[in-house]
Each structure stands twice: as structure tokens, then as C-alpha cells.
Amino acid sequence: MSFNYNANPVANIKEIPHHVLIVYDSKFCSGSLIGSKTVVTAASCFLKRKGQQIVVKVGANTMTGNGQVITVIELKIHEYFKHLSNSDNDIALLMLKSHVVFGSNVIKTVNVESDVALRVGAQVIVSGWGSTDLPIKYLNLLLRSEMLVINRRLCKKHYGKLITPSNFCVKYNLEHRLSDNGGGAIFEDMLVGILSSGTSKQSYKYAILTNVSYFHRWITLNTNRFLTKYCRYKNDTPTEESSEYKD
Fold first, then answer.
1. Where does 132-230 have alpha helices with state H?
2. How many CB atoms lie within 10 A of CB 131?
3. Strands 167-172 and 110-111: what pairing?
4. Residue 57 belongs to some domain of the structure
5. pTM of the entire structure?
6. Is residue 1 part of a domain?
7. Which of 108, 109, 174, 180 fits 29 for a cystine, CB–CB 3.0-4.6 Å?
């Protein structure tokens, strides 16, 4: 297996317009826009949250740059997060208070279908943010990292019981580490994974991704629950708390 990667990990939001910054208190992580009011991310993003308000920013090239800032009105963490291991069922959904405004730098991604497995050696593009654990030139910038899918045996050799049916492993160039988790893994313009763990300075050159295909039904069911609760479709009777959903 060999990498086919850009030597410069700094990305432009127009290259990965689904990428979202998620912030609460002084903590941050990444996510992927999958609808005009819906973001998917890692449940582990919120391990240190103690009820603080969550906001997201879309359409930004840097953590401090201009973008659409929107409040989160509901967080849905998978019911069985950490069931078999700390990385098991590491997925969460966010419902936004208002719709994003789609444009060249804000575009939702498409989830891979259920029962789809990537071949060993397939290359995915994972995105995230640069922080103080990386060289100063990457601080607060949007980054991309090319990663290769590896076989589960090698994966379990390094991570043991952390590897469950809900996730898979990828190999990456240590020079292209990411500072946070929750960012999407894209293969052929589809969201196939969510960065769960493994790109910290202390980790191996292998990362764990949540398998989006494994959660296709869960994502669909809970997205529909959000829409039923908070949104209305055209020709429906409007209510004070609802808004029209834009797919």
C-alpha cells in the first residue's frame, strides 16, 4: 500500500464544503453536514461536555475565520456508545436551530449506503482542524489527511478490543496528523467514516474510523425523528417552533 497524497495538508473549504466546526465551552471537534439542519460527528467529541451550549460553524477555512455560526438545539448520542469498547458505536447527530445557506463553500455530503465495505488499500480523505499539538503554521487551519484502509487483523494488533463491528482502521502519514476527531472520511464523494481516535501525538500511525455504512439505518431513523420534531414540509400547517426543511 502506498499513499497518493498532497504534500501540503492545508485544505480549502471549497474542497471539503461539508466540513463543520463544532464548539462547546473551550472544546472543539469536527463534523460533517448531511442536511440543511443536520450534522453527523463522533460521540466521543462530547466526552467532556457538561451541559454547555453547542454551536457549529460552516463554510470557514479556519477556526477563527468567517462562516455561518448556528446553535445546536439537540444532540443525539448513540444509545450504545462505548458498549463493547471506548470506540464502539462512536457516532452522534446534531440538529441545528436554523438552516445553513448552501453555496460553493457549504454543501452537504452523501452518506454511503448500508452493507458497503471498503477494500483494503482504499484511500479516504479525512478532514479536521489544526491545534497546538501540530506545528504552529497549521494552528486553527482546516486540514486534510489521506488515509489508507488496512485489514482488521493488523488493526486489532494495535488496538485490540477497541475494534468492533462498528468501526475500521486506516493508516496515515504521521506528518499529516489531525488535532481533533469527528471529521468525515470521504471515498468517491461519499461519507464512509468518522474519525473516532488515533491521530494524537501519542498514537500509532493508525486511526480508528466509525463505519458510516454500519450506521446507515440509525442515521436515517434519527434524522427523520429530528425532522418530524423540529421541521415542517411544504403544504404543512406551520407552527411557531418549526421551519421548512431543505434537503
1. 152-159, 216-230
2. 16
3. unpaired
4. yes
5. 0.89
6. no
7. 180
Give ∠ CA 121-18-71 in degrees, rounded to 5.
Answer: 135
CATH number at residue 172: 2.40.10.10
Q: What separation, in Å, do the N-terminal and C-terminal C-alpha atoms of the chain show?
A: 38
Looking up cell 467529541 gives: 45
Same-domain check for residues 104 and 220: yes
Same domain, yes or no, for 102 and 132?
no
Same domain, 97 and 26: yes
Residue 6, in any domain of the structure: no
172 and 153, same domain (yes or no): yes
> Would you say residue 182 lies in a domain?
yes
Range of the domain at 158: 110-213
Judge if 44 and 124 occupy the same domain.
no
For the chain, the domain total comes to: 2
Count of C-beta atoms within a 10 Å radius of residue 132 = 10
> Can you give the pLDDT of all 247 residues of the chain as single tens digits?
555 556 678 999 999 999 999 999 999 999 999 999 999 999 999 998 998 999 999 999 999 999 999 999 999 999 999 999 999 999 999 999 999 999 999 999 999 999 898 999 999 999 999 888 888 898 889 999 999 999 999 989 888 999 999 999 999 988 888 889 999 999 999 999 999 987 665 556 899 999 999 999 999 999 999 989 887 655 544 343 444 445 5
Kindly state the cell numbers that stand for 206: 493508525
Separation between Cα atoms, residue 217 and residue 46, nearest integer Å: 22
Q: Report the length, in residues, of the chain.
A: 247
